[in-house]
Specification:
By secondary structure, the protein is α/β, with parallel strands linked by helices. It is about 35% helix and about 20% strand. It has five helices and five strands; from the N terminus they run βαβαβαβαβα.
Length: about 150
């Protein structure tokens, strides 16, 4: 009689992607984070095979830093900005960001406030996605895949 194979532990990040998440196309992604946790999650997500075609750059600084950078540099295909500011401040910062964003750039905001009014205002301003932190690597990849 054959003995059954021993159970093997599987790292959730190494499992097959959830149905519907394919490879992200060859796009440029810039992330500006305010917390080290989001910076780490984004950096770890770049190691996922589904992002192998994308060019990803992750840095600290949030929306204010993104505005500063894109005053003199073209914006990427996808801009991910994290904020932990209150609603009115977020809207004002994003208004400044809109002044320096190139047409066609998609913006994903990662916030720390679960606020329906903020979400609606962000959608009116043309933000592509609003995500409430904390976000896992798989969730981040799924959000990006949904945009592309």
């Amino acid at each position: 009689m054959n003995n059954p194979a021993p159970e093997m532990e599987v790292n959730p990040e190494e499992q097959s992607p959830p149905v519907g998440i394919g490879a992200i196309p060859r796009i440029s992604i810039q992330a500006f984070c305010v917390t080290s946790e989001m910076c780490d999650v984004t950096q770890r997500a770049t190691n996922d095979r589904r992002l192998y075609k994308a060019h990803v750059n992750v840095q600290m600084g949030g929306i204010e830093k993104a505005v500063e950078v894109y005053k003199t540099t073209p914006t990427p295909n996808l801009l991910i900005v994290e904020t932990n500011a209150p609603r009115d401040f977020v809207l004002a910062e994003l208004n400044n960001l809109a002044q320096v964003c190139d047409a066609g750039t998609k913006v994903m905001v990662v916030g720390h406030i679960n606020d329906v009014i903020l979400y609606r205002e962000l959608m009116k301003q043309g933000v592509s996605e609003y995500v409430v932190a904390p976000v896992s690597e798989v969730q981040l990849i799924e959000y990006i895949a949904n945009l592309y």
